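Entry 0007
Protein: Putative hydrolase YxeP
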Amino acid sequence: MLHQACTKLEELYSEMVDLRRDFHMYPELSFQEMETPRKIAAYLRKLGIEVQEGVGGRGIVAKIYGKKQKSPEEQDKTVAFRADFDGLPIQDEKQVEYKSRVPGVMHACGHDIHTAALLGTATIIKEYEQEFSGTVVLIFQHAEELVPGGAISMIEDGCLNGVDVIYGAHVFSGLPLGVIGVQEGYMLAAGDEFQIEIRGKGGHGASPHESIDPIVIGSQLILNLQQVVSRRVDPLQPAVLTIGSFQSGATYNVIPDTAQILGTVRTFSEETRTGIEQAMQKIVQHTAEGAGATAQFTYRRGYPSVWNDPVETKRVEAIAKQLVGNERVIRVPPQMGGEDFAYYLQKTSGNFIGVGGGNSEINATYPHHHPMFDVDERSMLQIGKLFLGLLAEHFVLSDEA
Ligand SMILES: [Zn+2]
Ligand SMILES: [Zn+2]
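Output (structure tokens):
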């Protein structure tokens, strides 16, 4: 089945490009997607696929039921694939005919590629419905780019009900086209943000003894917080604590009342994440109290870390090697960036896969979220073929066993 299905996907390439460019020209921001889900649903319905709209807000869940009679010893298996479809608040600066027509909004992460690739793949899977006996769930997710993200509400709305395994692929401009990046265990970090409000007592710059200086306390606090990662966290557990903003005061000779500190924390293990939050809480309180000030500490959790099931990583790796050759499948080092695909992997086994889309010949080398970002559209075929390969593995090859 696989070779033929991949050929059929290739024949669909120009249609996938048209779909991708349409999404690219009309991007929509996270939690504001209106037309994109409507287009996705219309495309799937035309294929005769069952579609549920408004899942967890603006998400779409489509199901393709295999029609092959299953043998008695065979179990009903449900395999899910996820594509996200939101854009970013970035002005598209590329000079290509398909550049964004929406001022200030852009598909600068490749989610248009993911969605068009999954729609093309859905066309082929539907054509093969007589050939397998399980169920394929296609999850088109809104709002990946903005915390709390669309995944969590789609899961609460039941998109993973009955799903045995889930796969998601992300095109990466930093990986050349034709290269596939896999990783077992932790792949992407949990990303949290924090805010600290220090309240002292303002006064004249010439009479510091009559005031409680929030700038000095804030400076001390920033230094004290450096001990969290260096002295409190297990050195074998990756963690980052970065202060991104320290604001206070406005002029030369006035001690202000307050200071505000903003920052981010990135971790992989849940234990480290909780440990850092607790350690920060204590340091903030003690530093402020010791100086006679008060401090309010707010810690907001973003997405958890992406953890890839090792068994599924081996499966993906084997299929990827068949697709692009052994030397073009690499282990991507874990990164401190995040993805809300993490929530699906907390609920079910699965894998998040990096698919190369970089190509210097077409200027597709800029990083994600850059105003010049683009990727080679042939990455859609790689994503589609990987997904078809995974299906064949779950439904056809396992039948022969
Ligand atoms: Zn992104
Ligand atoms: Zn993304």
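Curator remark: The longest strand covers residues 165-176. Residues 1-188+305-395 form a domain with the Aminopeptidase fold (CATH 3.40.630.10).
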